[in-house]
Amino acid sequence: MNQFNKYILVLFVFFIMTSCRKEIPEINRPEDYVEGNFSEVFDAYWNGMNNNYVFWDIDTTNWDRVYKQYKPLFAKLNLADSIDVRTGYTYFKEMTSGLIDSHYDLSFNDSWLADSSSINPAYQRKLAKPDYHDPISVLHFYYTLPDNYLDEGWKRGFVNVGNSQYVAVAGTIDQHTLYFYFNSFNLKSLYEADGDNAVKTVEQYFFDMINNTPDIKGIILDVRGNGGGALADLNFLLGRMIDKRLDFGFTRSKQGNGRLDYSPWTPAFVTPQDSARNITAPIVMLADAWSVSMSEITTMAVKSLPNGHFVGERTWGGNGPLTANKFYNGGQFSTGFINQTYTSSLMFKYRDGKIYEGIGFPPDIEVKYDEAALEVGTDPQLEAALKLTQ
């Protein structure tokens, strides 16, 4: 079937689907609500969540019950009373505590809440876990790991962009295993930026090693503690290591105002880049409980390769992609009272048919965080990854 016929077929299916659906009622956007009292503040937020949140078919939160329980509670509060505003903050925290979206973060405009942290249910759940640990310090990756594990000639660098600091380290281990650490996904943007920057230099060094190391025994991509970032980095990084399209999952979005009004699932894939080198040696992802979002998506993509591995800990569990809600009928929104409801734009399903939102992606070789080992300069997770390349 040629591309034109495929296009006509897609349009035909779309019109058939939409003709069978009831007209979507016009509703106020959350930011357009008049919020003269706390009852209206609640309505703006509740309806924004009802229409924009993408996980209602798998989330265990009963959103209708939330309305019945909290609508009368908010109605009793006074927006002009600081104590009531803080009580409202507590209600928001209770309402959102079970949301499965592990990107979810709720921040407020009210000056009486300026000293209150944003509400992040996934972070609160993580703090309560018996195996909780802090992220590995970036100083371990910048100083200790290169000195103790990388061959002479390794590169490291950092660059500050706005309020963000980007760090990268690259080198070889035993000459034929390539290692690349970066603390955030903004690789493509930094690489294509005008002029030189230290992270760009490290990236170029790593890409040159991919192209010029004759006998690669393995590649280790270290995203421990990496909080995610730009989706464009998926093709930019992994696309240099494959020679054909890699399908690794599916995404879907909201396509209407209905709570369960979803688009069909569409394939998620990595596209080979120009002059890519097909790597058949093991590609190992090092990820941990603080690997979030793009770190998880990249780990899932690598695990889909026949030579892909994942060593470390179960990841954070926030793998729904995010983008501005002008592209989809869902995701992030604001109201007069709420600065931002930060929530996923899409739902992601891995190639095995499972959705790992809220639970994290499990490693095939689990190596738990070992604070005592890290304090003396050894890295058991890295050493386990190295065994796969020998």
TrEMBL record:
InterPro entries reported for this sequence: ClpP/crotonase-like_dom_sf, Tail-specific_protease, Tricorn_C1, Tricorn_protease
GO cellular component: cytoplasm
Record-level GO BP terms: proteolysis
Subcellular location: Cytoplasm
Family annotation (Pfam families): Peptidase_S41, Tricorn_C1
Residues covered by the Tail specific protease domain: 162-368
Entries under CDD domains matching the protein: Peptidase_S41_TRI
Molecular function GO terms recorded: serine-type peptidase activity
Keyword set, alphabetical order: Cytoplasm, Hydrolase, Protease, Serine protease
Family of the protein in this entry: Belongs to the peptidase S41B family.
Cross-referenced PANTHER family: TRICORN PROTEASE HOMOLOG 2-RELATED
Protein name per its UniProtKB record: Peptidase family S41
